[in-house]
Amino acid sequence: MGLFLPRLLWQGVYMLSGGQQDWTVFDAAWYFKRYQDVLTVLGVAGPQDCEAFYTAHGTVLRHSPNPYFDEDWYLTRYPHVASAVVAGLHASGFDHYCTTGLLTHNPHWLFDEQFYARPLAGQASGGHHDYRNGYDHYLRVGDGQCLAGSWFFDPTLALASGVERQGQLGPYSAYVSMVAPQRQAGSPLSVYFDPAWYVQAYPDVAQQIAGGVWRCALHHYLANETPTHYNPNAIFSEAFYASVNCDVAEALADGRFRNAYEHFLTFGLKELRRPSASVDLEAYSHHTSVRQDLEQGGCRDIFAHYVLHGGKPTQDHTFLQESEGVARALYQEMCRIKAPLILADRLDFSTGSPDLSVIMVAHNLFAMTLVALSSLRANYAGGIQVILVDSGSTDGIRQIEKYVRGLDIVRFDGNIGFLLGCNAALEKVSSPITLYLNNDTELLPGAIANMLARFQSEPGTGAVGGKLIRTNGLLQEAGSIVWRDGSVQGYLRDQHPGVPEANFVRSVDYCAGAFLAVRTDALRQLGGFDTRYAPAYFEDTDLCLRVHAMGLDVVYDPAIVIMHYEYGTSGLISGASMIARNQVLFRTTHAAYLRSKSLKNDRMTIRARSCAGVRGHILFVEDRMPCRFLGAGFARSNDIVHAMVELGYQVTIYPVFISDDTRDEVCRAFPDRVEIMHGRDMAGLEEFLKDRAGYYDTLWIARTHNIDRLAPILQNCADTLAGCTIVLDTEAIATPREYARRVLYGQAGEQSEAEALRHELRHLFMVDQLVAVADYEKDVLKESGFQNISVLGHQQRVRGGQPGWAARQDILFLGALHDEQSPNMDSLRWFVAEVLPLLAPLLPEGVRVSICGYVGPDVDLSAFRQNPAITVLGRVDQVGPVYDRHRVFIAPTRYAAGIPFKLHEAAAHGLPSVVTDLLARQVGWTPGQDLLCAAASDPQAFAQCVAQLYNDSAVWHRVRDNARERIQREHSPQDYRTRLAAILAPSGRSSLGGQQVGGFVVDDPAA
């Protein structure tokens, strides 16, 4: 029966055929080839007799029924299964896997169910019921898409190593289907295992492979019976990792991991633990080039990056700086190559009503000018007026109108230079925006559209510039600085364009004239460039300062990216004497402006990079970049950052832990004027603060546990932070939540709640102001001896136009699931196990429960996915449509802290809620009016509340309307900004600067 139970279980679903991978069936043809030597001796004539032989004898011999399941490995890897087979509870390991282990065990040494499921954890269920488990999905879909099914099988490397696809088989299926063992060391199948090193390090294994005991080095590593005796590569040491990590040694002793490397790949890698004594992943992660590679998806993780780069990242830009001469020559050559293609394409700028006017001055450089014009045309499909000033050219520029249609040409017999040429072209401008654009530039995608959008979104902007990148790939400038002596400096020159400091919008002194867009009416009012600076130098700087004097802003926008040959258009005059002459003129003309500027000093660059106009500078420290989709208080932090920017503050976000999210994803989550220190973590915070001494007016620390982490840094940076107000936003006091969880699970221990709270708050004496999320938490802080406490909850805008009761269906749970111990995971398990079975007879047929929100990489939702009454939506980009289509929101929380943001968000979207009495107390709403609630200990009452809200239209509308009214009254964005402004108002106190401690009464600060 053991053989046929899997067949009967899946009968009629799939049958094995050419190119069809199915782990549930017996593959007679493969079986005969794989075990031909044994079968021939025992008288099995051909494939037609194999299934009967397998049923009678093959399971005892530990034979595999098909290439996708490894019987011998399975029984070795799971000893309890082998014992069950011996005891007669299962006919074979294959029988166990098909009937019991398909969701919890791995079928083959090259596939890992949890590894494969992690990237899909936050995705919608879709048709998950069409697949029996992750392995089924992998064989039918993932393998064909060249997805990785384990740490140790990279399909790309497998194909590169010589694995050949056979028909419709993917790389994995092709590899495991090979009957002839690969006994040579072979090319690596994964960056995480080095077969060549392995056979050299363990020559006895090499002999066993040659003797046919093992298929290959990787097979031995993953299937041997003493896994802690072997290292997978030269970088990881089993002995070292287990010896320095006590939790690992305990886990190995308990049998939770096969070896220390399994723990490292699952947990230690993300925690940046050392894989061996000589490898420091945490230090390695601080290299700029490493962070950029990981952000761009160049490697799966930092360990893989270390392996592939031999632990030697290339962060030094010296080579790029020294190669600029070569880069410039190559750029010129590429222009000459592109020119004939552009000529054949026949550029056309003909337009009746242009969106912008471009002034370009050209003195020769025909090929380079064509490339610039081609780049401009390709960059923007709308109407562009191009006014080309031919400044005494002697090459193809003299006849450029033959090759480019729609140009307005202004010609001079001699080279009059950029300044006078631009002024001569100004009278021809016919659009509201004028762009000065050098003819030695190339625009990267979106430059023109982003520039126009900046003017449209900020009416007070008079001029806009972008990120100038030289031909060697390094920055020319990210906006520019004017010093008090009238000298100028391109900010971040010679730095990589991807550094965080170059990638946020700033108001600046000026932007270079290579790409400088100005409102035409302002430009005409100013008369263009000041001719006193003719022929060159300081004319663009002077123009921007005169724009400032009109009360308009000059903005650097990193979304505008320009490749610039630099100095490619200079030819009329150059030299120190002209620079010195014009600097004196500039200094005299703008004496009043310059008095507000700093003396030139490298340590003042960070303050000088932005011109005056911001209310203050705030450093916002959070666990990670607070994107809204993360939930768990991060949405509130995101709102706070937005409100700070709306109040006029310059905000820098600095994470305690390096973010797993891409830089583009993070940047989209915040206003573009926020400086996002992506790729940084707490290890670099002290140096960061010292480099920016005196820059920040406010240090905003989110969450009480982060003041613990930062306490030594704050002590070491006391002089750096003198005059800086330190604010701790508790977000949610964790002790009551954690203590409730321990009581719920019978793990309270000997420490009392009061002792735990005292420990949590032990470092709060270091800060000037405290912020609580609710009045009840403010009371907890007051009772602990603290004063100067403000309350800042949530902000919400009530959404209009949502559908009514009849147009909705199903039940929604929305919340982040960061880890298996989170309150949300506990509440889901309780609801599904205790409440959901009681709901079926109370609701219409077919009502489902949707689980929506961020899912952590180590969270296992397989049990929920298999439940036919549950749909796992995972993370979604827009929550509005999700709220709109559901009828009831549930929050079955049994322990929590702070105030549930999700409850306010659901109410703002017009979705009424059923919550536990705990949340009703925390939010302060009236049960039966603003929400329905039941005790977390009474699943029957909770089920009845859900059914009442779901079935009764009158109750539904009453609760929804009351909750919306409370949101409107208590959580308006305007009131929110007013409360935040009061918290940020200058107080003249600094707990670390030698002045009075921020008004707190603390019985024992050293506690």
Question: Keywords, please?
Answer:
1007 residues, alpha/beta, Spore Coat Polysaccharide Biosynthesis Protein SpsA, Chain A, Rossmann fold, 4 domains, ten-stranded mixed β-sheet, globular, disordered N terminus, disordered C terminus, transferase activity, transferase
Summarize, please.
The protein is built from 45 helices and 25 strands. InterPro entries: Glyco_trans_2-like, Nucleotide-diphossugar_trans.
Model description:
Pfam families: Glyco_trans_1_4, Glycos_transf_2. With 1007 residues, this protein is α/β, with parallel strands linked by helices. It folds into 4 domains: 4-180, no CATH class; 325-604, Alpha-Beta Complex (Spore Coat Polysaccharide Biosynthesis Protein SpsA, Chain A), CATH 3.90.550; 616-791, Rossmann fold (3-Layer(aba) Sandwich); 805-971, Rossmann fold (3-Layer(aba) Sandwich). The protein contains 45 helices and 25 strands. Strands 1, 2, 3, 4, 5, 6, 7, 10, 11 and 12 form a 10-stranded mixed beta sheet that branches. A 7-stranded parallel beta sheet has the order 15-14-13-16-17-18-19, with helices on both faces. Strands 22-21-20-23-24-25 form a 6-stranded parallel beta sheet, sandwiched between helices. Helix 31 (634-646) packs across helix 45 and helix 38 (823-839) crosses helix 43 (939-951). Residues 1-19, 124-128 and 988-1007 have low confidence and may be disordered.
